[in-house]
What we know:
Residues 1-21 form the signal peptide. This protein is mostly helical. The protein contains 15 helices and 5 strands. The protein folds into 3 domains: 2-82, no CATH class; 137-207 and 314-382, no CATH class; 210-312, no CATH class. It has helices at 2-21, 44-136, 142-146, 149-161, 176-181, 186-190, 224-244, 249-268, 270-279, 282-305, 309-312, 319-322, 326-336, 348-363, 377-381, and strands spanning 23-27, 34-38, 193-196, 199-202, 339-340. The strands form 2 sheets. The protein has a 3-stranded antiparallel sheet with strand order 4-3-5. Strands 1-2 form a two-stranded antiparallel ribbon. Strand 1 and strand 2 (34-38) form a beta hairpin.
Amino acid sequence: MTKNTITVCLLCLVAAHGAMAQDVVVVDPVYRYPTRVRWAVYDPYYAVTSRIYAQADLIRAQGDAAVDFAHARNLHADAYSKELDNWKKELRIYWERKTLAEQKKLELDQVRQIARMKYLNDQKWQNSRLWDRLKNHSELSGPNIRNGSALNFMLARIAASSLPYQFDPKTSRYSEEALRQLDLNDDLLSHITLAQGPFKFSASQTVDGTISLWPYILRWEDFETTRSAFEAARLAVVKESEASGQASVESIQRMEASLMKLTNEFHSSQKVRQWVKQRNRFTHFYSGDRFLQELDREILQLEKSGDIRPLSGQSGYDPKIDADHVVGLLCFMNRNGVEFAPAKPGSEFAYHNLFVLMRGLYLTVAEDDESLQPENLGELAK
């Protein structure tokens, strides 16, 4: 009995000690900070007040969060509004710049148009002055007549005003009597030299695929071997194309290689360089260089299109087909892109005779040619 009583007392003491060892956290109602109390001094008041204060703190925190969220939304709205303002400003600036660029472009186009009008009007003034000198003071145009520039000028003017594509006596504006005064004989035609690219030929003979007139320096004996090799390669390409309808790649490459060899010899020749400097014959050198460039362009055109016509040449002026007067000759030249080459020594008289005939022909249409009627751009600006 006594032993059982002692055991129960010990268990009660242990339980009481354990209960006293547990703590609980409550909020002080006065100072509002957590306070740790032991279960031994626990009061239900603390449980209720702690729950109420916890709920109040939660509600207060939710309110603060709502205020903060509202402030954040206001900040976001302000930022978005500023972004919209910036976007509107950027869009407005973009279109203002584009409008300004279009305005500048229109102004530039207007300036260019005025420059083109001024250029064309200046050309009309030049044409008018040149025609006035050719018409009234032909004695001052001797060099221009001999080098063919005066004849080419009147050819361009007649072609733009009254020259048909091909002469037809049924629809011609010139009478038979006028055409008889413009007759051309074989002797006169034999002294007229025509040019089509690098080809130069007499108006009384046909053109074949050979090069009949090389520039002066290229006719030297120093270039005879390479020049003959190029002519042989060129002739082989023409014959092969006429036989099979198309030149082979090997033939074109041989022709190109021979031309490159001739060009290199021409440019690297010390003899040519010294001769040009000593005698001041730079025009001869430039003439030969341009001639070689023309030949190279013909080969390039052949490589691109396979067109053999620039190499094979074409028929020259035939009085029986194209009519034996100045109008027929000019129609042939205008139709085939042929120009007057400089006169050969001893052939100047033929150029002067042809100049007189062409001048009389152009006099009939000069008054209606607008290219001789410049305008006063100052009055147009007003």
